[in-house]
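During the second year of the project, the team shifted from modelling isolated chains to modelling whole assemblies. The rationale, set out in the original proposal, was that interfaces cannot be judged from single-chain predictions alone. As a representative example for this report, we include one of the complexes processed in the last quarter. Its constituent sequences, exactly as entered into the pipeline, are reproduced here:
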Amino acid sequence: MKALEEKIRREGQVRPGNILKVDSFLNHQMDIAFINEIGKEFKRLFADCNINKILTIEASGIGIACITAQYFNVPIVFAKKKQSINLDGEQYTTKVQSFTHQKTYDVILSKKYLGPSDRVLIIDDFLANGCAVNGLIEIINEAGATLEGVGIVIEKGFQDGGKEIRARGINVKSLAIVKSMTDHDIEFEEQDS
Amino acid sequence: MKALEEKIRREGQVRPGNILKVDSFLNHQMDIAFINEIGKEFKRLFADCNINKILTIEASGIGIACITAQYFNVPIVFAKKKQSINLDGEQYTTKVQSFTHQKTYDVILSKKYLGPSDRVLIIDDFLANGCAVNGLIEIINEAGATLEGVGIVIEKGFQDGGKEIRARGINVKSLAIVKSMTDHDIEFEEQDS
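Output from the structure prediction step:
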């Protein structure tokens, strides 16, 4: 998605530790008009998939998933990162290691909201080592639901998460794939439109 | 908002400890078509306010804020509940006690995304003791921004957060105000439409 690559080049900031800050439009402040363009692009890329639910994980995936869901006319469900007294015992659980927070946390999803009849599109803001997406895939498998695809806004192509998930035959589409980044340049992988 | 009251009566579950579970449509699974109706209602209620930014707090406020922002044509910014290596030192911070998680956590917002030129609508899913909204108001004051109003989906009218914030002259609109709730009945306060 060229407009996204240009926005990342214009507004993104590269920080030590392979951090790409895009919090001016994607995951702290959110440019809602632009997130709508992202949602339309996910709809274009997954138009042939028979999706009836979008799954994401709190926190920064939620807004992107909600805007995107409007183009699929489906509900979303977001996995929660820690036990809450608002969730009863009937839940799927897995563990995810956070690249950003450098810790491992529990991820939970109420069994009421994912089951064998669900055909799921996973949406998230970043894909790096793939821990979050793999945790969501575990939950989909535990639920007996069908994974239709994975839609990522920004993939760090120099980390292995995306390659490993695609190698398992999963349909992963990333709107921008960062090939390399330094504090003065960000290179993207060429993709078929 | 009658449609919301009916949905809460139909789908809400009352749990011990004054917990109202609405995770079938609002804060775990999200009924995006219905959240759009909520966004339209916030626009109707705050149509006279000159809002240029919506502020919320992760996690469950984010999706509601994003959908609502489409009706105001403004960006959102969401406060984050814990330190992340993706946020540099230039941030507003406050502490909030969580009713749901029964703990106190730090709330942070990058100074880049809130300042004196911002006229802010706070959006959140629940208002109970008011801790989260008060934390956001502290951040708005620290930023020198203008608070135009507070839009809440469900207020627990039997707790004092809303009363206290209104008593300070702040324009708080809640789409449903729960007067009382038991496991077999939920009563709402009458409101002017």
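The two ends of chain A are 8 Å apart (CA to CA). Chain A has one domain: 2-188.
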